Each structure stands twice: as C-alpha cells, then as structure tokens.
Amino acid sequence: xxxxxxxxxxxxxxxxxxxxxxxxxxxxxxxxxxxxxxxxxxxxxxxxxxxxxxxxxxxxxxxxxxxxxxxxxxxxxxxxxxxxxxxxxxxxxxxxxxxxxxxxxxxxxxxxxxxxxxxxxxxxxxxxxxxxxxxxxxxxxxxxxxxxxxxxxxxxxxxxxxxxxxxxxxxxxxxxxxxxxxxxxxxxxxxxxxxxxxxxxxxxxxxxxxxxxxxxxxxxxxxxxxxxxxxxxxxxxxxxxxxxxxxxxxxxxxxxxxxxxxxxxxxxxxxxxxxxxx
Length: 278
Description:
Distance between the termini: 19 Å
Number of strands: 10
CATH class of the largest domain: Alpha Beta
Strand order of the largest sheet: 3-2-1-4-5-10-9-6-7-8
Number of helices: 10
Helix content: 40-55%
CATH topology of the largest domain: Rossmann fold
CATH architecture of the largest domain: 3-Layer(aba) Sandwich
Order of helices and strands: EHEHHEHEHEEHEHEHEHHE
Largest sheet: 10 strands, mixed
Shape: globular
C-alpha cells in the first residue's frame, strides 16, 4: 500500500522546517495529500489567578500564541504552494501529543520532530513523539532536530527482534523501502529456534521483504558490553543509513523510563529519521 494521506506536526520550533521539507518530499514521492497540524495549548487561567493579572499581560500571551500560529500557517502554505502539493492546514487547541495523535489516526503516516532539550517552546511538546507512537495506531516517522535529510529509504537499517511491534514497523515501512539501494536486517543477540528469531535469525523477514521486491540482507551481532540502542545507532552510521525501522516499546514505558531501552535511546540520540510502530 502506498502512502496517500500524510500528516506532519507543526509548531514554532526552529527545527520545524526540516521535517516539513521531508514531509513535502514524501508527499511528492507518493502523490499524497499532506495535512499540517499546528497545536497550541488551551489558554486557561483559573479565575482567581486571572483576577490578579493585568489584562495586558493576558492579552500579550494570547497575542504571542496567535502570532506563532499565523506565522507557521503562512510558511506552511507557501511551502505547499511552491511544491504544488495538495493538502490542508489544521490548527487545534489542546495538549499537543493528544491532538496530533487524534488527527494521525486518519492518515497513513505521521511525521513528528525529535525533542530538542535545549529549545524552549510556548507549550510542552517533549512528549509528542512518544504520545503519537503509543496513541495514534499509525506508523510514526520521527525526524531528528539536527541535520538535513534529503533522502529517506535509500539505505535502510531494520532493527529486528521478531516481536509484534517490529513486525508492524517493517510492514508499515514497505512503501518507504520500495526501490531502496540497500536494506539491512540487524538482529542483536538473537535467540534461535521457533520461539525466537527462527533457525537463521533475520532470514524469514528478509524473505518476506523479497516477496515485496525488496532485497534485504540479514546481519546478526552478539554484544554484552554495549546497549542495544547504541549498537543500532552505531550500525546505522556504519551503513550510512538514511532510515531506521524498529518496533517501539517492546517493554513497558515505565520499565524503559527507569532502566532504559532501545526505544528511549533512539528517541533521545537518533541521527537519522526513525520509523517506529507500536
């Protein structure tokens, strides 16, 4: 199935243009409809607090949010016009992660940005990627805040662990991998046999991709002194990958928050776009 309905999260981040450029490129590639969703927090101040604040302060805050929204709309509309892309602008008020997740349910792929820990935005948006991955039911392409990404899907690294989340991610990524120059299925610390990764780890999923016309080679690595997430990033760099495909949160989010995990490592330290499904 080709992507025909794309959604990109817009905000006032200085990095937003990078993911819009990527989204426009994908919309052109798939001749897809592109929806830009801009979110602003609900402007609610309890009455007992509002009574103590001068009206000009409240108006200034509203004006700041409105200017950011209007600026984003103008820039997005102009980019759409220049690229001759069919699509729409949508402004929603509420918790960003929840609003994007809600809209994403009616798209084939949602594109969001990695959180930049050094950037201060008018609303709390650090949890947008995680909320969309977990709450939208759609594949989520997370774009790093650093770098430019003119290609996505020419050189692909699949982080394969044979779990349901990874199965969904690989299936969701098939349109992006069509025509790829190189696809590597990376299996880390594989468990052989029918209850693990199969008799030849990675071979079954590579054969499945071959039936879709995608040539993939299986690679396995055994590590003890390096975290799985770090190994994925290292192998992606070695392969000059422009896309990583992986299942998200094979363990509970609480466990990954406390103990760490591959999903959290990639969300924090990704260097290329990552397609995640849950």
